[in-house]
Specification:
The protein contains nine helices and six strands. The chain is α+β, with helices and mostly antiparallel strands and 255 residues long. The chain has a six-stranded antiparallel beta sheet with strand order 4-3-2-1-5-6. A hairpin with a 5-residue loop joins strand 3 and strand 4. Helix 2 crosses helix 3.
Length: 255
Amino acid sequence: MENPSTEASRHIAKDLLSKAHSSETASTLFADKVLHKSLFLRPTSPDPTSQDARAQRRLQRLRKIEHRKRRQKPKPLSAKEKRISGIYDIPKEQQKYAIYVPLHKMWEGYMWEVLGIEEGKMPFITAQGAGSKLASADYHGAELTVVRSRCVGMVGLKGIVVKDTKFTFQIITVKDALKSIGSNMTFMFCIHAYQALAVPKKHTVFRFEIPQPSSSEEEDTQIPSLQFELHGSQFEQRATDRATKKFKQRPMADL
């Protein structure tokens, strides 16, 4: 077996170092950099402490994302999702006329405040003074009657408004039938539809009455109610949009 010193003297690294440095310097560099150099068994394996730190950073990042999602407002439902869920549909057990009679009484008091009608005083209402108020009023709870319509099957229909949309009036009749008035349906559909009866809001005229407030002494005296007609062609707006809109008098070609 060869001596290690003899093997070291024949090492190619020492021969190369001796060509560039002196013999003493070459021996020192060879001993420090080659013979006594520490070798790692697994130089590419990651440090366990670095793995823990990486996992901690990932956990903190996921917690921040979850906290941010909790603080964000929920995404609103689309029109299709609202139709599928039926959040605006009235349940079958709630489609009863007696349930909405108190709503109609509240609406009468609301209209007295809108028109400035007081008990014991004769109201003086004109188109110039009350027209814009009636146009911007809310008709949930009003008792409407169809007096003119292209669909003759709808003439005479009467009920309390339970939903006032842009193109329709959904009313509940005395027979506990929920009907939709004002959708852009065809003429044949408004005759043959089942329950959800619909007629075009255009070319449809509605009538409603507002009773005058009377005291206990005037109960025996018949006080005439105030009657108004509503032209559906000029009323294709939502209740919330009408409340903030300023109405101006202009000629109507269809009258």
